[in-house]
Amino acid sequence: MLLITEKLKIEFQKAKRIFLENQKFCIISHRSPDGDAVGSNLGLRLALESLGKEVVSACVDPAPENSSWLKKADTFVTDFNYEDFDAIVSVDCGALKLFVFHEAKPEILSGQKPFINFDHHISNNGFGTVNPVAPEECSTSIIIYKFLQFCEWPVTIDIATCLMHGIYFDTGGLMHSNTSGEVFKVVSDLLSKGANLRKIVKELFHTTPINKLRLWGRIMERTYVNEDSVTISAVGKSDYDACNSTSHDTGGVIDYLNAVPNSKYCLLLSEDEKGLVKGSLRTQRDDINLSDVASQWGGGGHPKASGFGVQGKLMPVMSWKILSEGGNEAHGTEIKF
């Protein structure tokens, strides 16, 4: 039996009623979507379409290449008319700013129409009119799975594949600490329904173009551990140009930074194509809450995986320390240029 809290059941019931009583829906994934943002979006969309509903998937950025093979991943739109829909749905948006569309369409937050907010991030403050938010879950895709089970709506092969894709991505291939016994039970059920795990594994973790490898090489080459035992690296636009790549090609490399022994956590700073510097944080330790770390710069996420974004660009700083002739660091002078 699935574990669904009473609070989540109440939100599920509200969401179910909205879906049954309305016809047209727009499901929105967070900017720079990942496997879970795409998988949960399409899994829910396909389920609603099987009920005869009209659904559009939207995101300000396109689906990443490793998720583009999922059914209808190529139909995401980058803009839409609010008046065309009966209700708006967000998936995997850990903070309102990741939703983005409300900036040009503030009426989304007016309460004129239902706004269902499915998410699993602890940083989510419940910005929808209905909020099926469960920070204890490994992914938004597993919340969608539980919602479909709650509603007793069928899960087809394509739906199973989309949800498996999201779960597999957000658990790091079922290896992260958020992979509970229940997660394996859900994965087993999705496999029994025909989820294409082999394709998921290949696309998410076993397909790396040469330009992406070159970019990762640059990131790894400049990786260092600072005096606070934090593993840090950075990558910018000049690196993308040199490697014929984009900011999306940084995906996955942080798992290698997170493997540095005796490191408290790791941080990857990366410029994107829109003038934003993104910080991605990961840790293997149980005594560090990266959501608190990311919140210092307006970000958030999970205790072991979080992120933030700051407008600007990266500027490298070299630091040298001059030691006394005997090599005594206590009398060294630090020089930065």
What does this structure look like?
With 337 residues, this protein is of the alpha/beta class. It folds into 2 domains: 6-204, inorganic pyrophosphatase (n-terminal core); 210-311, Roll (Diaminopimelate Epimerase, Chain A, domain 1). The chain is built from 11 helices and 12 strands. The chain has helices spanning 6-21, 35-49, 96-99, 140-151, 157-170, 181-192, 197-205, 210-221, 237-243, 254-257, 290-295, and strands at residues 24-29, 54-58, 87-91, 115-118, 224-225, 230-235, 265-271, 276-282, 300-301, 305-311, 319-322, 333-336. A 6-stranded mixed sheet has the order 5-6-7-8-10-9. A 4-stranded parallel sheet has the order 2-1-3-4. It starts with 5 loop residues before the first helix and ends with a strand. Residues 332-337 have low confidence and may be disordered.
Q: Bin the strand percentage.
A: 15-25%
Which CATH-level-2 architecture of the largest domain? Alpha-Beta Complex
Strand order of the largest sheet: 5-6-7-8-10-9
Main β-sheet: number of strands, strand sense, barrel status? 6 strands, mixed
CATH C-level class of the largest domain is Alpha Beta
Using the CA coordinates, give the radius of gyration.
21 Å
* Average pLDDT: 93
Give the end-to-end Cα distance, rounded to a whole number of Å. Answer: 60 Å
Give the overall form: globular
